[in-house]
Known about the structure:
The chain is mainly α. The protein has helices spanning 2-20, 33-56, 71-91, 101-116, 130-148, 153-166. The radius of gyration is 16 Å and the shape is globular.
Amino acid sequence: MRIAAASGALAWILILHAVATAPSADLPATLPWGLVNLMHAATHAVLAVLLLRSFCGISPREAAWPGIATGTGRVILLLTLVHGLHEEGTQIAAAGRSCSLADLVLDLFGAVAVLVAPWPRGAGRPLSWKPLLWTLLAMVLAATALGEWSAFDGLLAPLLKPIADAI
């Protein structure tokens, strides 16, 4: 079952890559900025779940999901960060797209939300829903604040441009 979850994670990464490299004219522009950015968190929450299942399996005997306070949780965050950096770096070359620090922050918020949820139980997971609720509140505030302050967009591009040119 881990192979199926790993295959799902790889397929999801390929879908996210296709969307990240699509020209802006090909993307729907019907959502307000904050909702579009919350989609970053949602898509990377799905990625975090698929990566967790890849590491931990999905059989009933393997029902424990490691949380943020475990080595596996830190690996999930690192993989999400690497994927987010790659995704933002590839957007430099896409017509009408740009890389954004706000998007990267929201990618990480999606993974954190999965790792701080108290259910399903597992090592390193909190016992209450409060950490998840605080994470979700911070995510919405970050989406709003970073969306209004576009100065963040210029910070990440110079760092990722050499990587995007090498790809």
